[in-house]
Amino acid sequence: MTTDVEVVQHETVEINGCCKKGPGYASPIEAMAGPKESLIYVTCIYTGMGRGKPDYLATVDVDPKSPSYSKVIHRLPMPYEGDELHHSGWNSCSSCYGDPSAARRYLVLPSLISGRIYAIDTQKDPRAPCLYKVVQPDDVIQKTGLAFPHTAHCLASGEIMVSCLGDKDGNAEGNGFLLLDSDFNVKGRWEKPGHSPLFGYDFWYQPRHNTMISSTWGAPSAFTKGFNLQHVIDGLYGRHLHVYTWPGGELKQTLDLGNTGLLPLEVRFLHNPSEAIGYVGCALTSNMVRFFNNPDGSWGHEVAISVKPVKVQNWILPEMPGLITDFLISLDDRFLYLANWLHGDIRQYNIEDPANPKLTGQVFVGGVFQKGNTVLAEADDGSTYQVDVAEVQGHRLRGGPQMIQLSLDGKRLYATNSLFSTWDRQFYPELVEKGGHMLQIDVDSEKGGLAINLRFFVDFGAEPDGPSLAHEMRYPGGDCTSDIWI
């Protein structure tokens, strides 16, 4: 397998929803008026399912006027097995808007388990992307010591930055941030020597405030084996946010979120680049924590949203957390959406007052205590209940909502249901057996409200090579979880 191919010169053209001046949009509000999505790329996983197949990138048609609406129209298999494709990002986004030589062309696919990083060319044929280049893990380890790559963000410099969760042996102490040049060559670590975080996971930068903030999942040696509460007690999972100078790479503050902030995962600033406010979803304690810049220049934090645990019967614990595994913010910074993977609901909050979010919409799309499962939820009076979950096109919904993606105009929310193959097998074994799926939720972006679109259902249980798991989603023209403004 040749892992490098001929470099094709970038062209300054209007492609993939990008503007002529540079990739992306001049502002978040301008992005909201961008073209309606017609395609979405989905990372699909066979790793951990025992099928002997490589993971792949699926192209899904999301144009309601198309005859192939709600169908997988192309599959790009990776050249190796055992990757565990997970998150994805772009080589260039709105942070490069002022650079007419840049183009949003390559989708970056870090492989959480193998450590490979794939660059996928979406420009030649957006409906049928092709492999451009493979960054091999040996090269990354040799030059940086980093492994278990997770989140990829493009930088205004044209470089790509990737958070890595540990060293090759799965130790959290080896984590940090990988820097690739514009052609995906390994440059080194981004952070200054001695400024690596305690644990790694997600990150987001806000250049006007010269700040990057990263979150903390846990040690790969722990989470790759499945979730074990003892590992939390043993200190193998995180509860901190790390505040860095941007672009300097110096760790200037560590925020201890305490017992209300266990397993802080996705982290997002408000899209308005002048705002020094953001949120992080803390999975295990199921809180949304707001972080903010204090008048003295330090950063503070407080719990902004709490999802109460539910008393349950016939489960591994007497109480079940919601397990907030993903969230996002609409481009106008009006609404926050979160997914409770175990409880099975997606929620919409109005955050026009960022310190006081108001619940404005909620819809159940699965969950451990939905009707037909063995687990029962307990009400305050001791009675038991299960949640009604609508069938979609005759399909009973499996698992719970995991990754979510919002349309640029804020009116359509897409959801997949795989978290990580090992955890899927542990909490939703039916997913590994029958595969994942993708849903679309209609959003009332004026008054608030969520409703399942019954016309849309992508069944990854019916794939040609057998049921697969579906995770991250990206539009060719960018979105609210990949584009950053400077």
From TrEMBL:
- One Pfam family name from the record? SBP56
Q: Which InterPro entries match?
A: Se-bd
Can you tell which superkingdom this protein's organism belongs to?
Answer: Eukaryota
Q: Carries keyword Signal?
A: no
* Keyword field: Selenium
Q: Does the keyword S-adenosyl-L-methionine apply?
A: no
What terms describe the molecular function in GO for this protein? selenium binding
Question: PANTHER family from the xrefs?
Answer: METHANETHIOL OXIDASE
Family membership: Belongs to the selenium-binding protein family.
Protein name, per record: Methanethiol oxidase
Native source organism of the sequence:
Anisodus tanguticus
